[in-house]
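Lab manual, section 2.4: Encoding a predicted structure.

Procedure: take the sequence of the chain (312 residues), apply the prediction step described in section 2.3, and record the output as structure tokens. A sample record is shown.
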Amino acid sequence: MRLRAALAAVALCALAPSHAAVPPPLDCTRVDTATAGSLPADRAPRIVLLQGSLGIVTMAPFGQFLEGMGYPAAALLDPRTGEMTTDSDLDGRTLAGMLAWQYERDGVRPLIVGHSKGGGVVIDTLRALAGAYGNELALVDPRTLEPLLRTHFLDPVTGETRRVVDLTLPLASAIATGRLPRILRGQFELANVLRDVPDSTEWFVGFSIPYDPIAGTFAGDEDPYRATGRAQVRNVVLPATTSHIGVPRAAHLARDPATRAWIDAYLPGAARPMPEGVDTTNLVHAAELWYSIKRAWCGEAQRANRHGQRAG
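Recorded output:
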């Protein structure tokens, strides 16, 4: 546990604001892996990787995939545990406060990605940030999960005083998250709004697996996510062979040159043949998320640049 805490402390220091140069304007919708590697590490958003309810199935393998593709490892570690996964036994108000705390510290808006039950936490957090639970949410220290005695913070990019509910994330995603498990857990209100994406995220990607008995889906496209306002929402139906509990296992994709090249060239909506003769398990959602994460990373670097690098 001491080692994990030390790693988490290193992660926080690594993401603290620095005076690294911000690159010139880029087309953030077409950032390849080589270009992503040139982006400032201190502008890489912290990614909260929320695991499902089954404790032995964590998001660590997906974190290893992102690290293998060139994402800064420090931005993938849970500040409390030092692991590349976060327990989903959080409510949306707590995680919203944690995200605001993180943003106040490093000036980079965080991302949230949730698998199964973790996807429900993603939606609950977006609702909290949108004011569903009131406008006076407390900041929360992610190292201890203790709430602070304040609901406002100083925006390190704009210099403005803001509330937790004023924070808008660049990206959020839910993978294989169904209404049925929420109903079985007695989360009736969340089940009712599980596909509603508020304006507290700019970009949202929802993944479903056809005929997934754990999530309670059928064809996979019968219950799409939808924006309640301006958020851009993308629904992706994964191959029917996708395993619900195996979704996080993607580390191998970054190691194989064929799958890595396919992921690097991936653009949403572009039909390309899958590589042959290699293990392509979980290739689609890994490529989709890597594209979206690169886009968010680039966007946060550009955002700091537009505001005169106040956060850098």
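Check your result against the sample. The mean pLDDT is 90.
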